[in-house]
Amino acid sequence: MLTGLILAGGNSTRMGTDKGMMLFKDLPMIQHAINTLKPITKEIIICTNYQRYRKLGYKLVADEVKNMGPLAGLISGLKDASTQNVAVLSCDVPLVTTSIITRLYQHLNGFDAIVANTKNQVHPLVSIYKKTCIETFEKQLLNDELSLRKAIKSVNFSELIFDQNIEHFSNINTLEELEKHDN
To answer: Full-prediction pTM beyond 0.85?
Structure first.
């Protein structure tokens, strides 16, 4: 069983407004993440400090430690998940598909985490983590080590290579990127 965790708490400084609510192909970007995770998860949690997401009807979890980036959000979501395995997506990767998350889950095996990799680029927010990562990640956070890429290297993780449909992993951080991918 999987819990779906969507990280939507960032400051969206490059976009200039909340990315999760920006329309992409006629839906808010966060709705694409929900649609990706819903068919394969027991529950969906949105990690955010914004109450506007309440209207989506899913459980909201705020960062326990504020202004510490996605690692803090990941820890909060892992703690709140009702399952041992948590599929993680950021709200700004609306092209990730259910089949990508399913493939990751099928390759989790005995690892604490499995992370998507495209052409040697690791995507720690297109991944699956076990709750067993919490303690290690908390230590990282306490030491002000906020990099998710470094944090995953501190647990028993694997990478799953995706060499086709690389555009599915595109982050949309600016209005220009939104326009480019929305056509």
So the answer is: yes
